[in-house]
Amino acid sequence: MLRTHTCGQLSKKDIGTKVTLTGWVNRRRDHGGVIFIDLRDKYGLTQITFNPEQSGNVHTSADKLRSEWVIKVVGEVIARPDNMINKKLDTGEIEIIASKLEVLNESETPPFEIADDEKTAEAGEHIRLKYRYLDLRREKIQKLLAQKDLFIRDMRTFFQERDFQEVQTPILANSSPEGARDWLIPSRLYPGKFYALPQAPQQFKQLLMVGGVDKYFQIAPCFRDEDPRMDRHFGEFYQLDMEMSFVEQEDIFEILEELWIELTKKHSDKKIINEDFSKISWKDAMNKYGSDKPDLRFDLEIVNVSDIVTDSKFGVFAGAVKDGGVVHALKIDGGGTTFSRKDIDGLTDLACTKGAKGLAYIIVKEDGSLQSPIVKFLGDDVCAEIIKIVDAKSGDIIFFGADKWRIVCESLGVVRNECGEMLNLKDNTKAAYAWIVDFPMYDYSEIEEGKIDFSHNPFSMPQGGMGALENEDPLEIVAYQFDLVLNGFEISSGAIRNHEPKLMYKAFEIAGYTKEDVDREFGHMIQAFKYGTPPHGGSAPGIDRAFMVLKDCNSIRDIYAFPKDGQGRDVMLDSPSEVSQKQLDELSLKIVD
Q1: Largest distance between two CA atoms of the chain
Q2: Does pTM surpass 0.70?
């Protein structure tokens, strides 16, 4: 070994010990001829002192040292003078008087200051990602990677202690319609045919249940060609995939609640609001919070006031109800005195991004009078009833949405979320978990107008079974499909699976798939299910997203060793990149302009 100790290991008990340390020059300081070097490795910092009276020729060599040089130092541990003790460092009570120095590797001047987080931030994300191997040296990134490692270790231990078996499923798989674009891999051996990277191990884990594995889990890589965002890393991510046979929905809830309570307490400073996780139907979540991943750290609830305004003289409200829509109200405590005209305009613009035509409002002034252009159209009685039902008081503001149900829910949902941000209601010391249950089995397609399609996982079991599929309006059928949300983020999705061939054919038929389509896309699943498949279900928490929320990171990219940037590029490797004509010819591919 090149070293006897690490840079975070030494303390007062080691005084008088001769040690050998290795690491990077973090900072260099010259004080009256004495050179101080803060030596850094993964484990911490240690101050090295080169005193011309004690270090001899080594002091002359130390004068050449610069930031990020890699060095080896031999010396004796001594106590720091009382006035030089650094209580912020684990090694702050000692220093090393150097007797030998060896430069293991020199460094060019780094493109940004590694030892100073503020200066590093000034460099910008693009530069930091281009030189990510340097960014990784920062203490903050080192700690996050180490904490993520422990986070995943504890996940593994949790499931192994409960007799779950980890199984690695294939990376080269088949293309299948699971909600996102596939990453396709052209086959060299079979020209014109393609593998696909798995969006999730969904089909494989269900086939493991057919195979009698009974309880499976995996730290699984998943690949989806989706646009990046703050909580979605481009192209690839990891999830804790799990599946169990002979279970009902509550069995899955029970084991995952136990897991997340344990992980939150061990890996976060957040206090769980309710260890008996709330269960909210998808429809109730949309009605009350305008989102299927509501942030429950604050109370702001949306109220349906359609019945109150249906006969009012305000045409926008009355007309929306008459046309089959709804009118919902959202009261913001203190918003009437807090929000400026500019704030209200900003919230209006936000609502419009979800399809709203505007954002009506009423301010309850301190003297109890109402301020709004719509008050004179609604009338005193209607206004009084609205004030009563939403429990508005002096200084509050009430926002309204009037349109089709989905538009109203989603537009007030983003307003609610933004108001929580503006009023500092999102308490990062809290963890608010909730199960969102009873997702609709079907919805209208986002691509083809008027077409019914699966709203979530196509392999979910419809509640009511074949009777529901044959007799109910498809848009009214709910599935044994659920999400787990934490502080406004979806961190897991799961379901009780459809394991019966007849039900699968019928479920896909409603979504526009013929029997031939299903056999072509999922023939292996249908065939397998004909051989005595146990009822089964599972879930797949997103490891990266959940860790990001528990650690209050600004972006999911913060917790990857080598993340893509916000445009899906790897600026360090200059990827995606062009390939040679020889490679294209081997794969029987041609680039078309």
Answers
A1: 94
A2: yes
